[in-house]
Amino acid sequence: MRYDRLGNTDLGVPALILGCGNFGGIGSTPELFGHGDDENAAFALLDHALTLGVTMFDTANSYGGGRSEEWLGRWIADRGVRDETILTTKVGNPVGPRREDSGLSRRHIHQQIDASLRRLRTDRIDLYLTHAPDPATPIEETASAFDELIQAGKILHYGLSNVSADDIEKTAAAAGHLGTAQPANLQCGYNLLDRTAATDVFDACSRHDIGLTAYSPLAGGWLTGKYRADRPFPEGSRMTLRPDWYGHLANDATFEILENLTATAAERGLSLATMALAWALTDPAVTAVVIGPRSPEQLTAMCAALDVPLTAPERAVITRTAAGGTG
Question: Which residues form a coiled coil (predicted)?
């Protein structure tokens, strides 16, 4: 496993981060709570991750209605591995029906960090992230709240997710004006079928020495080859459970690109999934990649991408192919 420094911190993070959004549900969607992986499957995956050097675990207060944090905390306590692991969780998505049950207000952040610490059975979070922007709360209030948590020792660093370059600039400026801690991390979607981050947030992260962790590197399974133009979507797949997230990809143009990418991977003796992961991992702007395997076997297969040192020219060819070019 490779490790790299996260942004402006001294935190060394593994190149692959285990996403725990499938524990006890499928992300933050209430109607899917109780779906996803059960606790035994989650423990087996976490055990295997640790043997492979995947020591950073990404969750959120809203995943599985709190089950993801609860199970992760129970596993850490049971295995006695808190000091061997890096925990990141999030705040901001709804955790109840009321307006005050979401957002990035000082009150909500202080309330939710305590709830997350209880569920995770720990006294500190290594990296605490906003889950989504909150236009109703001033950025200064949010930045101050995170700094208060750092001063209290409840979190070591904070970061942002699913925000624009403008949001990054405003947060950095607010923290500078207030004299509070700067954000250390941006988590955003980035893969061969969605390269928006490269033109939106990469430069802002570089300017402010903010580490970038990319989630959905396989585009919800689209870059594994599981979705075919002539076949129904597999039972239990993201396209059957959450078609709103990736439904826009279900068209002839995408299937043609996938066919070309599969051929490009085969020329290198790789599977489509391994090449897609390697493409994200070898991007100089990416600190680490958040993956969401559903089994130990899938996790082992994903780790194979660490041994694929794509050069800049090779990455350029793959990128052109993903853009609909001929390579």
Answer: none
Residue type, 326: T
Do 14 and 51 form a contact (C-beta atoms < 8 A)?
no
Task: Give the DSSP letter of residue 45.
Answer: H
pTM of the full structure: 0.95
H and E: helices and strands count for the chain: 13, 10
Give kind and range of the element (H or E) at residue 175: helix 165-178
Distance CA 191, CA 194 (A): 5
Q: Which CATH number fits domain 3-247+281-310: 3.20.20.100, 3.40.225.10, 3.40.50.620, 3.40.50.970?
A: 3.20.20.100
pLDDT digits (tens, 9 = 90+) for 186-199: 999 999 999 999 99
For residue 19, give the 3-state DSSP assignment. strand
Q: What's the rounded Cα separation, in Å, for the pair 296 and 301? A: 9
- At 183 the pLDDT is 98
Q: Is 63 a catalytic residue?
A: yes
Q: Where are the domains of the chain?
A: 3-247+281-310
Handedness of CA 113, 118, 124, 127 (dihedral sign): negative
Q: Which one from 3, 63, 158, 190 is the annotated catalytic residue?
A: 63
Q: Return d(Cα 266, Cα 133) in angstroms, integer.
A: 40
- The band of 273, judged by pLDDT with boundaries at 50, 70 and 90, is very high
